[in-house]
């Protein structure tokens, strides 16, 4: 049976049995925060629990590696919408140890793309159009430095208000322990 069929059959029962009721909340995050984290499957339930968050407490934006490289891409757009339209007052960037982005090899990924049917002509066209796929596909060597870079990209964005703290954390996917990388509060608040 196909995965889509399984999902749709489950969903029919979920709706008929009104299971959705226990997840209902409104569109505004209760704790007025937006979290940019990695899309790693180990964090789906662990990250909110480790941060004492329940359904409805946060807006959650996910990217591979919690990396924010394009200040005008969709992840940054989501953060801005969370702040200006959905009442988020703080931003948390949460990377994690043992991240798949720390081992990405752009050449190997391009080879995998070719094996999956992406033509070398398509890759060549992208490269000739000014897209450096090796940089675009590159991961990071140090998760803490990567989190700092994402924090700086957000904090220095021309559309982020100065009064919005942008914090950086790294979580252990094994234990849920959070390590502080960047405290985004003004110095007088860090006592």
TrEMBL record:
Its cofactor is Zn(2+). Pfam families: Pro_CA (PF00484). Zn(2+) binds at residues 38, 40, 96, 99. The keyword Zinc applies. Its EC number is 4.2.1.1. It comes from the Bacteria. Keywords: Metal-binding, Zinc. The keyword DNA damage does not apply. GO terms for molecular function: carbonate dehydratase activity; zinc ion binding. SMART domains: Pro_CA. It catalyses: hydrogencarbonate + H(+) = CO2 + H2O. SUPFAM superfamilies: beta-carbonic anhydrase, cab (SSF53056). Binds 1 zinc ion per subunit. Belongs to the beta-class carbonic anhydrase family. This is carbonic anhydrase. It comes from Peribacillus cavernae. The lineage of its organism: Bacteria, Bacillati, Bacillota, Bacilli, Bacillales.
């Amino acid at each position: 049976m196909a995965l889509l069929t399984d999902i749709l059959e489950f969903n029919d029962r979920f709706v008929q049995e009104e299971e959705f009721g226990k997840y209902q909340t409104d569109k505004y995050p209760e704790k007025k925060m937006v979290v940019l984290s990695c899309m790693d499957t180990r964090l789906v339930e662990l990250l909110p629990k480790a941060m004492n968050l329940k359904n409805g407490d946060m807006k959650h934006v996910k990217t591979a590696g919690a990396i924010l490289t394009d200040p005008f891409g969709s992840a940054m757009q989501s953060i801005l919408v969370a702040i200006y339209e959905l009442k988020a007052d703080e931003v948390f960037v949460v990377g994690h140890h043992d991240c798949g982005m720390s081992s990405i090899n752009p050449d190997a990924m391009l080879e995998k793309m070719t094996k999956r049917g992406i033509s070398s002509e398509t890759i060549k066209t992208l490269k000739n159009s000014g897209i450096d796929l090796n940089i675009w596909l590159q991961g990071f060597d140090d998760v803490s430095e990567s989190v700092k870079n994402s924090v700086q990209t957000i904090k220095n964005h021309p559309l982020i208000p100065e009064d919005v703290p942008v914090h950086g954390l790294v979580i252990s996917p094994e234990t849920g322990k959070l390590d502080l990388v960047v405290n985004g509060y003004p110095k007088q608040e860090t006592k």
